[in-house]
Amino acid sequence: MANSYQSICILRLSAIGDVCHAVAAVQAIQGAHPDAKITWVIGKVEAMMLEGMPGVEFVVFDKRQGKAAFKALSKTFKGRKFDVLLHMQVALRANLVARCIPAKVKIGFDKGRSKELHSLFINQRIAKQSEPHVLEGFAEFARTIGAELKAPSWQMPVTEADYQVADELLSGLERVLVIAPAASKAERNWLPERYAQLAEHAHQQGFNVVLSGGPTMMETTLADSIMAASKAPIRNLVGKTSLKQLLCVLHRAKLVVAPDTGPAHMAVTMGTPVIGLYAHSNPKRTGPYLYQDYVVEVYHRNLKAQKGKAASELAWGTRVKGSDLMAQIATSDVIAMFDKVVAKELL
């Protein structure tokens, strides 16, 4: 298999966490096919995080350009034809992107995970899996072309300059706990006063608490609320880092606490333990991959209450709905997990 592919195209546009999972698969593919040219069609924001990744040509698809983005993609690939396309995203937009990528073989998800017309844009499928994590789904794509991903590892493309910025932002702080409080939707965020209570407990245990996140109004408002509610000192880095600099901040941290959000998975790529807070999605599918034992969740009980069945009896990845589910996660449970992880990982 090692010499059977000369050109491999990866299609995974978003989101940050999923792209982090895909990196492990892509780097396994590089190991199995060292002579193959690898091209990755990716979203604009996600490309910023992975820019400079060795051995990978990134082709950015900027969804904000609308139809022009599809035309640009077709122009980029005019006259080219890949040996294989690994179509790792079932969303309709990604399926339409796949149409613009010329390849002899287009491998997509199994029938159980195909939706939004995914089946129309592929001619081969990965094998069906039993209750896979998202990362394990990507690993099956790698396995399909002869690349085994037995133990995921990551080499994220950060530079000394990125670390220098991170170190300046963390100047004077030792034993750092990073709280990345915001998910993509507000309903998936834990309560600010509870984040504040966790920060106070961590400070009492000798940690310096740092908030991280992007510059959106939701994230800055949430951070301000946490700062106002906490009696402990907190360094607020929300909106102050690039994605690469955030990777470095997460690497310097001893521990990260986050809901279902990209920075949780970014921390995993840097080898930093993560406590994940989950209510709406199954953490066995989307939780921090190497630290699933550290999840505090109310997903399964809400799934049972809403659907009357356990996760194993429903379509894998079934989500639960509700604007106040995260409020069911008790501060005491998160603090207990914090103490457990500190005892196991850090002392």
TrEMBL record:
Transmembrane segments: none annotated. The keyword Transferase applies. The keyword Secreted does not apply. It holds the Pfam family Glyco_transf_9. This is Glycosyltransferase family 9 protein. PANTHER family: LIPOPOLYSACCHARIDE CORE HEPTOSYLTRANSFERASE OPSX, TETRAACYLDISACCHARIDE 4'-KINASE-RELATED. Keywords: Glycosyltransferase, Transferase. It comes from Pseudoalteromonas fenneropenaei.
